[in-house]
């Protein structure tokens, strides 16, 4: 093969498609962990399979996986040994011609291109042939390793910024919990209300996909889905007149379904779909206070534990949510808590700006080194 030649990826990789294990063997405690599409990025799974299986489907830490439905994510498996379920595939490069880390850095951009041109009925599907047909320019193995090493270092810096943001979030939650107190024991003796008396939960609306466009346009509004709080990669827009549920940047939004279920979100605006619901103050409670209140483990963990499981999804039990007892401090003390949190949030915002800058630098470096 000539150096830096444009070749078909399928000639340099093996693809193992996951097995359709019988769902009768699925459970949450016994057997072997099972990797489903939703587990690829997190490297964690709550599903186990108890039954016979072929050893070829046993995935090891560091194996390169691709989700074949939805967002077409690629990621190294970060968990313990687990079984490869259907609609997830393992990609193994030929070590004589293709470096694994080089492939890792190359692949997501190409998967995103396929995703953008794939028609959708209910969910987008990726075929093995589409992966095999990807064109890749292969320099020498030595050069591939050099490029991958540079990108690995740049990515490590980016990941440290992401970790700093997570630590800031942990500190925010801990500060709120310290100032507010335990809602079960109510040590500050705040007046107690039912959550449904002070917060209104309103579910989203699902317009037909025939109304969707994927570029901003006058007369259209963004239709926000759960995934949009992490990335603008798949921004979707609908006609303004079709927007039945509207929310603003400071509104508190809840992921109704998972995993992970009951994410507490904010920071975007637009119309929201059925997978989200808005938590609005009824009286004597600030939006910012609601945002941190719902993240307290005394509420959050109970909601997650009691989520209904259907077709592999979890759903928020709204009746349970409305019946929680909530000790409610006066507005002046809520404002005092939020003022303290605002100082930490400002620090977090600086890290996020730095991360965005690093993201842009990384993409530029990747484009220059890999010829995107």
From TrEMBL:
Q: Which domain of life is it from?
A: Bacteria
Biological process terms from the Gene Ontology for this record are: DNA restriction-modification system
**What are the record keywords, sorted?**
DNA-binding, Restriction system
An MF annotation (GO) of this entry: DNA binding
Q: Which SUPFAM superfamilies match?
A: DNA methylase specificity domain
Determine if Lyase is one of this entry's keywords. no
Tell me which stretches of the chain form a coiled coil.
none
Which residues does the UniProt record annotate as the domain Type I restriction modification DNA specificity?
A: 3-166, 187-352
Please state which protein family the record places this protein in. Belongs to the type-I restriction system S methylase family.
Instruction: State the PANTHER family in the record.
Output: TYPE I RESTRICTION ENZYME MJAVIII SPECIFICITY SUBUNIT, TYPE-1 RESTRICTION ENZYME ECOKI SPECIFICITY PROTEIN
Question: What name is this protein filed under?
Answer: Type I restriction modification DNA specificity domain protein
Organism of this sequence: Escherichia coli DEC2D
| Lineage of source species | Bacteria, Pseudomonadati, Pseudomonadota, Gammaproteobacteria, Enterobacterales
